[in-house]
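Team,

Forwarding the record for the chain on the shared tracking sheet. I've put the sequence and predicted structure together so nobody has to dig through attachments.
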Amino acid sequence: MLSARNQCQFSRRTLLLQATLLGAASAAAASEISVVRQPKPQGNKEYYSHAKGVRIFPGAWRPHYPWEHIAWVSPSWPSQDYIWLDFPEAIFTSQGLIYLSHVNPPIHTVYTDLPPVPWKKRGQGIEFERVLPNGISFGGNVEPAEKAADLELWIRNGSEQPLKEIALQTCAFLRAIREFNAFTGDNKLVHVPDRGWVPFMDALGIEEKKGKYGIGFHGGKKIADWPVMVTLSLEDERLIAFTWGKSTISLVGNPDHPCMHADPFFPDLEPGQSARIHGQLIFFEGSLEHFTKAWQNGQFEIEG
C-alpha cells in the first residue's frame, strides 16, 4: 500500500496502468486510491515548449566535492528541466572503493580530496578522463541521440595488481526534472519474471530469485529479468529508462533523493588491460505497454 505522501503525488493514469500490469490484487488496491495527475506547469507556454531535444552539458550536484563528474541531460520532448547524471557515482573493486563522487562519512574510500577533472567537448556531447594515484584510469562520454543519451564508460588497469569485482554506481538524479521528481519509489519500476513491471519498493520484498539482475545497491537479490529501470512521468504518458544492457549488475531506486540507478559491472582486468561498456538513458513518449513491446522487439539493444 502506498503511503499517504506518495498517494498525493501519483496520477490516476499511472496507478491504473500499474494495476493492469500487476494483476487483480494490485487493481483492487489501486481502486481504493483517489488521486489526480500532477498539473503541468502553467504560465508562459512558449517558454516551456521552446527548448526541446536531448541536450547535454557539464553540470554540478555537490560543487563542494569538486572531483564529481555530473552531466546535465534534458529529455527529448520540450522541457526546461534536466536530469543530473552522476557518472559514475562510485567504483567498487577488489582493491577497495577507488572512487566516490562525494563524501559519505561511514564509507571508507581509498582516495579522498581528488582534484577536479573538467569535462571536454566531444561533438554534441561531453567526455572526461581521470587518472588515480595508483595508475588506474577511467573515463566516459555522454552523447545525445534522437530519443536517448548514449553512454560509455571505460577503465584501464594501470596498477601493478589485478583489478577484480569491478562494480559501479551510476545515478540519474531526478530532483531537477519536475515530472519525475516525486520523493517515492512507486513510479520506479523493474521487470520481474511471472509478474511483469513491479514498483521498485515492492520488488525489494520479493523472495523468489528468478531473475538475472540484482535489485538494490551492490548487486542485491537477483529479482529482475530485464536490465532496465523505468520511471513514469507524473504529468504525461511517457517515461525515462536507464540501462547498461548485458553489463547491468543491479537496479536501484532511492525515494529520499529521488533517483534511479542502472548500475554496471566490468570484467576483471589484469595490469595493462582495459574495457569499455555502453548504456543508454532512454526518453520514451508513449505508454508503458508500448515501451514493453518496443523492448521485447529489440529496439533498445545495446552492443558492447
